[in-house]
Amino acid sequence: MVVWAVTHHDALQSLLADPRVGKDARLWSTFREGRLPEGWPLLNFIAVPGMVTADGEDHRRLRGLVSQAFTPRRIAALAPAIEARAIALLDEVGRLEGPFDLRRHFAYPLPMQVIGELLGLALEQQDELHELSDTMVSSSATPAAALAAQRGLNALLASVVAAKRAEPGDDLTTALIDAHEAGRRLDRQRLSEAELVGTLLLMLVAGHETTLNLITNAVRALLTHPDQLRLVLDGEQPWSAVIEETLRYDSPVGQFPLRYAIEDIEVGDVVIRRGEALLASYAAAGRDEGHHRDADRFDLTRQPAKHLSLGHGPHFCLGSGLARLEAETALRHLFARFPGLALAEGATDEPIASFVSNGVRTLWVTV
């Protein structure tokens, strides 16, 4: 098995937009020839049907169906509801006694509630879906546990689809079902059943795991860099600068599997052979000293604060606008409510045991 980790900013930016690089796992000789070990934990990432594993016309078709939910107008319309959710969660946090885990009590429920509402998920389904997706992106889960999580997610999302077929709602799941049914009536495959479930899986994981890490990583960076926090609280730098610098400095996605060489590609003095795999190492690219001056320094005045943490090229993150809105809203209200927020005594920075997700397991703070 050959997988090339692309860790430098310029090389990664070029390859993410290179037409000689595809996302269909059948392009990978190891997958195509059946040489992956049984229970390989990342199988669902590379083989789930949907726009994240599609190329060309299939990718444009699937992205077009989902993009209607993420237009700038629709995202702007969500702002009041996101504000209200952030305020309500902080009201609950304010009733807690002593230090609390900000990741658990604030950074997780906000994006999960938002993506849950977009998909039309019941509240009782959201925690179960989060636990299953956590296991799916975990590097410490056994192959059996990872496989069980993948099956559990698929089964739960299939039940969501069945429920929405019985009782349609004003949500993205119903819209995707309508697209599937319309294509079937016209004998045109606008969206297959497998693509429908796969798209919901992508929306669920990408719609809350990344924003959860973004909020947590941003708060942690600010609390460990009080001089930078002061720049924002004094109005010298906007909250948007915190979002962009956090995306570069501590990317919420460490690396994302996988892409594949459609033909031999020269990258510097390396040749990536046709049929070999590439791993987009977003966190490493954000710390590339060859592209970012003083890359290991968290600096809100950095200009320009360019990064690749939301992707590049045809697979650029469709929900980037929503993630930025949620994170900025969360930070603005959090520090307005608790200007004296600080890391709790004895707080640790144990990383999430994940090949994909980049963040800390807990963020214990005190107000």
Notes on the structure:
- The structure is a single chain.
- By secondary structure, the chain is α+β, with helices and mostly antiparallel strands.
- It has a single domain (3-366), classed as Cytochrome P450 (Cytochrome p450, Orthogonal Bundle), CATH 1.10.630.
- The chain contains 15 helices and 9 strands.
- The protein has helices at residues 9-16, 29-32, 43-47, 56-67, 72-94, 102-107, 109-119, 123-136, 143-166, 172-185, 193-223, 226-233, 239-249, 282-286, 320-337, and strands at 3-6, 21-22, 100-101, 256-261, 265-267, 270-272, 277-280, 342-343, 364-366.
- Strands 1-7-4-2 form a 4-stranded mixed sheet. A 3-stranded antiparallel sheet has the order 3-9-8.
- A hairpin with a 2-residue loop joins strand 5 and strand 6.
- Helix 7 packs antiparallel against helix 11, helix 11 (193-223) runs parallel beside helix 15 and helix 13 (239-249) packs across helix 15 (320-337).
- The longest helix has 31 residues, at 193-223.
- The protein is globular and about 55 Å long.
- It starts with a strand and ends with a strand.
List key phrases describing it.
single chain; 367 residues; alpha+beta; Cytochrome p450; four-stranded mixed β-sheet; three-stranded antiparallel β-sheet; 15 helices; globular
H/E order of the elements?
Answer: EHEHHHHEHHHHHHHHEEEEHHEE
Cα shape:
globular
Report Rg.
21 Å
The major pleated sheet works out as:
4 strands, mixed
In total, the number of strands is 9
Tell me, rounded to a whole number, the average pLDDT: 91
Proportion of residues in helical segments: 40-55%
In the CATH hierarchy, the third-tier topology is known as Cytochrome p450
In the residues, how many domains can be counted? 1
Number of helices: 15
The CATH H-level superfamily is Cytochrome P450
For the largest beta sheet, what order do the strands appear in spatially?
Answer: 1-7-4-2
Tell me the fraction of residues in β-strands, as a range.
Answer: 5-15%
The CATH class turns out to be Mainly Alpha
